[in-house]
Write a structure and sequence with these properties.
single chain; 8 helices; six-stranded antiparallel beta sheet
């Protein structure tokens, strides 16, 4: 379409750019430095991520009059990778009553003696023996094997498993919603291995299929608590790959991801390498996004275009003049925590104002 020479139009056309972290990806994989830069790298981005065509420059020979600046941070449920695996060992397997499941050496269920059954006659008092003929002292295993009517001591069924971080975080959410902060895993799960152990921890040689059938018939399940899961993550996953506490314990006194950003970063607008404004990020409310009075999710400010920061005087960006926005994390320890955040996560910076352009 031809350009009308000598005539320009002024339209309300905000410009925006964003940093995007995909699901199961950490922020450190997208930006490893302490400074998140916007309007600098716009290549390969979708229209959801930016509406600029050239890095740090307005389109064509347009000029821009910035009246407001907003920082919008998404509040999407995080996704976690399944290739990060955690091994759990010797977790209790219980029946419908919450009791340990005991089995015999052949894998069948162990039935303890019935309470109230008449006791057998006490054994006759053994004759006194001297030190030479005195038998060896009975062991603890011998004592267990001496249960009435039981020729051998029972084995306790426990479980080992290997779960990805994504599965563990799902179980953690289930456990947090439970009144007793416990969740259950089926014994026939493909990532679970059952075994029967004696009191010394030695594993009995029992057919796996027989043991699984016995435990399933007894209504067996694996009990895992919130503390168990958090301990597994802390002990088995490298610290830099662990989710931050805001994602481990969301809305549980640990704050939110949005709060982590706005209270720990400083946002700066540069025009022609000159600082036009520099303030902590909480100074630039989003003025957009969903809102709920139930408190199930958080937004950066009230979702109204009027509830955002507006410049006292417009900031002008001339044609072919470089500009950018930087969000810096000054504290090193906080930076390490922020870089552990898992996506999906989007952070937009919006310059709201008027674009002056040629009439076509």
């Amino acid at each position: 379409m031809a350009i009308v020479q000598g005539i320009k139009e002024k339209v309300h056309l905000p410009i925006y750019d964003s940093l995007a972290v995909e699901g199961a990806q950490q922020l450190r994989e997208v930006e490893a430095s302490s400074t998140l830069k916007f309007f600098v790298n716009v290549q390969g981005k979708t229209k959801l991520e930016t509406n600029l065509q050239s890095a740090s420059l307005l389109p064509h020979y347009n000029t821009f009059e910035a009246r407001a600046m907003r920082v919008v941070i998404s509040d999407l449920p995080p996704e976690f990778p399944d290739e990060l695996t955690v091994d759990g060992e010797n977790f209790d397997v219980t029946d419908d009553n919450g009791d340990d499941i005991l089995v015999k050496g052949d894998g069948t269920i162990f039935e303890p003696s019935v309470p109230g059954a008449p006791p057998s006659a006490p054994p006759a008092e053994p004759p006194p023996q001297d030190a030479a003929t005195k038998p060896a002292k009975a062991t603890k295993s011998d004592a267990r094997a001496a249960v009435v009517g039981t020729p051998e001591a029972p084995f306790t069924v426990v479980a080992d498993f290997t779960f990805g971080l994504d599965r563990l975080m799902e179980l953690l959410a289930e456990a947090r919603e439970s009144p007793d902060r416990t969740t259950f895993v089926d014994v026939d799960d493909e990532d679970v291995v059952l075994k029967a152990v004696d009191e010394d921890g030695d594993v009995a040689d029992i057919n796996a299929d027989v043991l699984l059938k016995t435990v399933s018939d007894a209504g067996g399940s694996i009990d895992i608590t919130v503390g168990d899961i958090e301990g597994l993550i802390d002990e088995n996953i490298d610290e830099k790959e662990q989710p931050p506490i805001e994602q481990l314990r969301p809305n549980n006194g640990s704050g939110t991801i949005i709060g982590k950003f706005i209270y720990n970063t400083v946002t700066t607008l540069y025009v022609g390498e000159k600082i036009m404004i520099q303030m902590p990020t909480w100074f630039f409310p989003a003025g957009a996004g969903p809102y709920s009075e139930t408190g199930h999710f958080t937004t950066h400010g009230e979702p109204s275009p009027l509830a955002t920061f507006r410049f006292a005087e417009p900031i002008y960006i001339d044609k072919q003049q470089n500009f950018r926005v930087e969000m810096e994390v000054p504290d090193t320890d906080t930076l390490k925590e922020i870089q552990r955040i898992y996506g999906p996560l989007n952070i937009w910076v919006v310059l709201d104002g008027y674009m002056t352009r040629d009439v076509q």
